[in-house]
Amino acid sequence: MTPEHAITPSYPPAVILPRAEHPISRQSIDPETLKVLYRLHRSGFKAYLVGGSVRDLLLGRTPKDFDVGTDATPEQVKKLFRNCFLIGRRFRLAHVRFGKEVVEVATFRRMATADDLPESPEDHGHFVENVFGTPQEDAFRRDFTINALFYDIGDFSVIDYVGGLEDLAARRLRIIGDPLVRFTEDPVRMLRALEFAARLGFSLDEQTREGIYARAPLIAEAAPARIREEIMELFRHKVAGEVLRSAASMGLLPHLLAGHEGDEATFALLEKLDERTAGGTPIEEPFALAALYLSRFLRACPPQATVTDVVRIAGLVLSPHCRYFHVAAGIRHQAREFLIGIFRLRRGPGQRGERRFLQHPQTPNALQLLTLWSEATGEDGKLLAAWHQKLKGRASSAEETEPPAAQKRRRRRRRRPPRKAED
Ligand code: ATP
Ligand code: MG
After folding, report:
1. Does CATH place domain 1-170 in 3.30.460.10?
2. Is 65 tagged catalytic?
3. CB of 143 sitting under 6 A from ligand 1
């Protein structure tokens, strides 16, 4: 341990792994990020790779992005790079641009205490971290030990202030500090804990788990926009089923999703959807939304429901979520179309209005969702083959007879008036 890593007496000493004792090679670091690190270092500043990238490199995974931490202030960073833009109001970050690529450079910071902050209503419900700090302080303000490791371009060492290396080796996700305090500070960390555990196949540290049980209701106080984004991250990372299942078992789910109680069919469907995403089909929010609420929708539809009833029921089932998360009308509309489409598919072929239904642009997606539902629950299997056949026929005859522009025109026209009952 070198003295400069032990400035703050209340922190335990850092563990430093020299280059020979860890697998991170400069070849696996993004070249533009390396340029930024080197220039900061040559200019006399500390320059570290920070956050998820160090974790992923140590695990032999490919990082999504490479973030840089430094003791240079944003203004000093700006002076060093021609294509540098300072962004953010509360905490200024430097973005260094290389063509389309952006390298994010953040000055080391610490958790703000009450004294550091002017009382501002805007800060409500956010964790605030807008005061410059030492590297140690920067490590300790982070969420999980494995997310607080640094790679120092100065000597190619890995610096661990928080016990992250031990937790990586034990494949354990542990929040930094007192779980009750850290989850109260920022309840979104509870969801992130489940997300990282699922993504990496790590176990949740026992105290961290107990902290989630104890603080679960607080997640309802987090900013809905952040929750919405983290939920979509779960879908993109193909862990929505697993994470929402464990969120339900830990009492987090209803506070998270505007009262969504969760059920086996939903979790099984989401797991199928995650498999589909893993297979390369990108996930869109309306589809995710329809999957989240399909089970509840089907339970709410009476056996003799007409299409008119179902249009109303689909709207009702989606509306608490859409209101809470301020989901745009277009996304909500598409999710509703999927649900209505599923209802019509489940009635079986040969109903009135089938020709138009088959040409509806969302019908193939509704069929995909029903297929996942069938795989997840074992229901509706027989219907699927018939529908797949019919849709295939439709698609090829439409291609033959109509130029794409005509198809587009027709779709646009049909979308405008409110859907009318056809039975
Ligand atoms: P990935 O980008 O692969 O999802 P990541 O670890 O990079 O994972 P980000 O959400 O990009 O996660 O955040 C970057 C880093 O910022 C994290 O590694 C963590 O150190 C810190 N961080 C993010 N969110 C929080 C939070 N809510 N509280 C404390 N620290 C956080
Ligand atoms: Mg990241």
Report:
1. yes
2. yes
3. yes
